[in-house]
Amino acid sequence: MGKITGFMEYNRQTEEYLPVAQRIKNYNEFVLPLSDEQSQMQGARCMDCGIPFCTNGCPVNNIIPDWNDLVYRGAWKQALEILHSTNNFPEITGRICPAPCEASCTLNINDEAVGIKSIEHAIIDKACDNDWIVPQPSPYKTGKKVAIVGSGPAGLAAAQQLARVGHNVTVFEKNSRIGGLMRYGIPDFKLDKKYIDFRLNQMMAEGIEFRTNVFIGKDLSDGSLSGVTNDATEIIHPDELLKNYDAVILAGGAEQPRDLAIPGRQLEGVYFALEFLVGQNKEVGENIKNNINARGKHVVVIGGGDTGSDCVGTSNRHGAASVTQFEVMPQPPEKENKALVWPNWPVKMRTSSSHEEGCNRDWAVSTKEFIGSNGKVTGLKAVRIDWKDGKMSEIPGSEFELKADLVFLAMGFTNPLQKVLDAFHIEKDTRGNARAATEGDDCYKTSVNKVFAAGDMRRGQSLVVWAIREGRQAARAVDQFLMGSSVLPR
Ligand SMILES: Cc1cc2nc3c(=O)[nH]c(=O)nc-3n(C[C@H](O)[C@H](O)[C@H](O)COP(=O)(O)OP(=O)(O)OC[C@H]3O[C@@H](n4cnc5c(N)ncnc54)[C@H](O)[C@@H]3O)c2cc1C
Ligand code: SF4
Prior knowledge:
The protein is α/β, with parallel strands linked by helices. It has 20 helices and 20 strands. Bound molecules: flavin-adenine dinucleotide and iron/sulfur cluster (SF4). Residues 96-97, 149-155, 172-175, 180-182, 185-186, 190, 215-217, 251-253, 277, 306-307, 310, 417, 420, 455-457, 462-465, 467 line the site of flavin-adenine dinucleotide.
């Protein structure tokens, strides 16, 4: 373990941020990574628990105590090796993972958790800065061909794992650039896209083929992808894919946004969150459907999660006049009751860096109507909600109006694109996700022979780290299906 008495000697030190006034002037990352010495001291806090709850709490089961110890000892290259043994993209998770491992850390019971995410961040940034990450092409080829539909973290993790055991992998993506929601959803200030490009270069050198602007499905003529990013200029029918490839992994995410069907929804200025965020994340020269600018506008974001918070941060960088965020649920407690919830993920008040940059947060509010003039939104009508025994009721007389020039609907995603799953004729679960188990001989297999599913397309809207886990595990399932056995990790 690190230093035996480290957890008693050193306090947790979190990464600092650039001051708000400075960071909202641009879209650059603003987290200041720990120095080597600070990371080593934080690694020394790890108690190397006999049962490392952090590893259990981490969806990719990162072997956290080992790299904490290695960082403490200054063995950074070995720490990187351990980190990569469970996670293909620590440069992403080290930046944007909510770190369920830290909630599970034993030190979190009566002290502050080990700063696991900041140590991961320090290891991977050091590796990138020192060019330690090089392509690992397979020394042999199996001659098997695998098609992956979708280039988010699930598709990319699956692709890298499969290429490294010798399969010919092609990733199909309907958008013009690779990365899924990491590219077009998550803003640059949380994740600099150069890290996705860096990994893509590695993956191309490992032999993976990327085909962008290609939609896998039957047709696009019925407008059923409205509200969903789509730059496809070519359509490939699932039958053709199944004919030409030995296995297919569906990793198309859960892209169907939840709508708010209330009067005034059609007014100009009311958009799905991603219509706004994608426009911001696209680069010069890319096709931008809605060029939405929040400068000088009164912005209301409906939905209190990550997506909503990203709309807040982006609106402030545009120079919005005001930003308000509504959440239908009541305000959670400031702190959790650790005795009741540890080692699980607690429901508690979470204030993101974007909230700190300026946002009026309003809880237990339901929006009833968008109001406007000349076809443009000018405000909304809402009502306060009372929650009792899990049921909500409107508080009589609590109706209010709020000025709004822009409204972003950030209430989550209902399910994957049904059109894609239907084109493959695969069975769905009750929430409209691709049905596939995660345990047993048939894990990640859908109801259609040689078609597998992983990530948000199988589990519904989730996190990058879960997508990476599913991509890795689906890759192993595919390898086993193609070769009869697999050396890929579970
Ligand atoms: C705004 C926003 C912010 C988020 N912030 C965080 C965060 O901070 N931390 C975190 O852990 N998670 C975050 N998430 C969630 C996270 O991004 C997703 O859970 C994760 O990206 C899912 O990965 P995936 O590979 O399953 O799917 P996706 O990333 O959604 O990728 C799926 C890809 O498949 C493509 N595709 C779909 N159908 C087809 C088809 N028929 N043919 C070709 N291509 C197709 C899509 O275009 C897309 O590129 C955020 C999500 C959003 C929307
Ligand atoms: S639970 Fe915390 S203290 Fe224990 S091994 Fe994991 S990181 Fe170290």
